[in-house]
């Protein structure tokens, strides 16, 4: 019996080879012992015709750019797939859905920049995953949640700058995690909590920011985490702040790992916009480390209004789309809230929040929407018993267009009446003022005649100063002669002292009558 089993074991590779040859082999590839070797053939895609019983496929050193679910669907017994050193940049969701027996997957040295959980769906038995040397920048929450039996995860030599707290969730069997040679500046304690079986951790050659957020890592290593680190891995060197640059995290006291809570400035803090306008609101935050800026809409619009698009722009991560009433977007340092094609749904309160390990600060922003410039046509009045579909306005709104037609008319009439009353009062006051001024001028006019050979001097005019001592000045030096008492046939007019007497009177007094020059003197 034992002899029969040994003979069967020795014949198994030969039988497998015969089966592979019987099912064919991809062009230019080599097939042997349930293995297909297609390396260094300048392939642009996964070659068709790989026998379904294949367990190991070598596709390294080619120019394959994508993996589709159909490429590997026939290979349900595949256990080892090596595709390092290709040009892979896209992995179709569910690309490995049919490879439930896969144990080792090598995708290192490619151009992969984005990972999500749907890519690894179906790999329940995967033990080793090589992703080193790609262009990955972020590890989002639950990226590896479909890899419960994964034991080794190689992520070194990427550009990972963000490791979210739940990015490694589900990796309860992981024994080795290599995050060296990335762009990590910090890592949270929560990110490593799911790794209950971790035995090796590599974090060297990252630009670590040694502040209060990294205090736990130094303490953890000193307390027992050092068992996971080799002598080289313990040398976690700080890149910032400048005063701690080039120092080892383990050599820095906890009191030196500090953070500065954020301060926030929003400009403007309140704005009024018309329908259809675009609006940009700046939110600047400072602190250490640089705060994460987040915009939220905290005042919900009423039911029946359309949902509007809100975009946060600015900063190194660009803009992100969101819906009103939801968490909008985040950015580091500064954020610009950009509202386009404003509707009534945009009206309300917003909030800019800046947070860092030192704390968080929130500043509100109020947006009012003015309907005075662009108002949609008024719909016909609803039939009796029908529900009105006129736009709703926020409670407390003082917008004129938000009032009814009768109220608008009454307000306009009241304003017009007040304006007319004010105009009439102004006219009456002006007329009364003019009359008083004219009367005062007439009371202050003094008429004199000049009998001298030359013009009257101001010294001579001083003689006509009235009893109150008012100053006098000449208004008209060529005023016509005034009627004499003789011409008037009356006595001197009242209030006109200084009029010329009749010629007979002048002759009786022995005076030589000469042409008279009259002056109008104002006091």
From TrEMBL:
Residue spans crossing the bilayer: 410-430
SMART domains: IG, IGc2, LRR_TYP, LRRCT, LRRNT
InterPro entries according to UniProt: Cys-rich_flank_reg_C, Ig-like_dom, Ig-like_dom_sf, Ig-like_fold, Ig_sub, Ig_sub2, Leu-rich_rpt, Leu-rich_rpt_typical-subtyp
Any Pfam family: Ig_3
GO CC list: membrane
Membrane topology of the entry: Single-pass membrane protein
Glycoprotein found in the keyword field: yes
Keywords on record: Disulfide bond, Glycoprotein, Immunoglobulin domain, Leucine-rich repeat, Membrane, Repeat, Signal, Transmembrane, Transmembrane helix
Signal sequence region: 1-24
Predominant localisation class: membrane
SUPFAM superfamilies, per database record: Immunoglobulin, L domain-like
Domain of life: Eukaryota
Keyword set includes Nucleus: no
Residue span, Ig-like domain: 262-370
Subcellular location: Membrane
Gene Ontology terms: biological process: positive regulation of synapse assembly
PANTHER family to which the protein is assigned, alphabetical: IG(IMMUNOGLOBULIN) AND LRR(LEUCINE RICH REPEAT) DOMAINS (PTHR24366), LEUCINE RICH REPEAT CONTAINING 24 (PTHR24366:SF129)
Name of the protein: Leucine-rich repeat-containing protein 24
Gene that encodes it: LRRC24
């Amino acid at each position: 019996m034992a002899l029969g089993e040994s003979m069967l074991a020795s014949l198994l590779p030969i039988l497998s080879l015969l089966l592979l040859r019987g099912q064919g082999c991809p062009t230019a590839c080599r097939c042997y012992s349930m293995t297909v070797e297609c390396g260094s053939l300048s392939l642009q895609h996964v070659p068709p015709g790989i026998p379904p019983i294949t367990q190991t496929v070598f596709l390294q050193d080619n120019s394959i750019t994508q993996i589709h679910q159909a490429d590997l669907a026939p290979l349900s017994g595949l256990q080892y797939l090596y595709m390092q050193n290709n040009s892979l940049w896209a992995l179709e969701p569910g690309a490995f859905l049919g490879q439930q027996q896969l144990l080792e997957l090598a995708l290192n040295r490619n151009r992969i920049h984005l990972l999500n959980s749907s890519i690894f769906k179906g790999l329940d038995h995967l033990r080793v995953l090589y992703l080193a040397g790609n262009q990955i920048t972020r590890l989002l929450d639950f990226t590896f949640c479909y890899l419960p039996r994964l034991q080794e995860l190689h992520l070194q030599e990427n550009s990972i700058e963000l490791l979210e707290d739940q990015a490694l969730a589900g990796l309860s069997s992981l024994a080795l995690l290599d995050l060296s040679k990335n762009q990590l500046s910090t890592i949270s304690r929560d990110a490593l909590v799911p790794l209950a079986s971790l035995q090796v951790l590599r974090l060297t050659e990252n630009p670590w920011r040694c502040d209060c957020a990294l205090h736990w890592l130094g303490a953890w290593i000193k307390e027992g985490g050092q068992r996971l680190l080799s002598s080289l891995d313990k040398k976690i060197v700080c890149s910032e702040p400048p005063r701690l640059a080039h120092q080892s995290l383990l050599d820095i006291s906890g009191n030196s790992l500090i953070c500065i809570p954020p301060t926030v400035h929003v400009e403007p803090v309140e704005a009024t916009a018309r329908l259809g306008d675009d609006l940009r609101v700046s939110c600047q935050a400072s602190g250490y480390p640089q705060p994460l800026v987040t915009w939220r809409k905290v005042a919900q619009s009423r039911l029946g209004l359309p949902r509007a698009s809100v975009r946060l722009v600015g900063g190194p991560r660009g803009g992100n789309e969101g819906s009103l009433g939801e968490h909008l977007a985040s950015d580091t340092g500064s954020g610009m809230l950009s509202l386009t094609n404003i509707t009534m749904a945009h009206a309300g309160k917003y909030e800019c929040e800046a947070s860092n390990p030192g704390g968080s600060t929130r500043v509100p922003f109020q947006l009012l929407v003015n309907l005075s410039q662009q108002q949609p046509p008024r719909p016909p009045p609803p039939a009796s018993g029908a529900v009105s579909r006129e736009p709703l306005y926020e409670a407390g709104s003082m917008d004129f267009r938000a009032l009814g037609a009768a109220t608008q008319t009454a307000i306009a009439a009241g304003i017009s009446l007040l304006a007319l009353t004010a105009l009439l009062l102004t006219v009456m006051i002006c007329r009364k003022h003019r009359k008083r001024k004219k009367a005062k001028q007439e009371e202050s006019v003094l008429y004199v005649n000049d009998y001298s050979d030359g013009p009257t001097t101001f010294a001579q005019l001083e003689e006509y100063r009235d009893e109150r001592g008012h100053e006098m000045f000449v208004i008209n030096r060529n005023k016509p002669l005034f009627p004499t008492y003789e011409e008037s046939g009356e006595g001197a007019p009242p209030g006109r002292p200084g009029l010329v007497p009749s010629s007979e009177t002048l002759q009786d007094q022995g005076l030589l009558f000469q042409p008279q020059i009259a002056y109008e003197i104002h006091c």
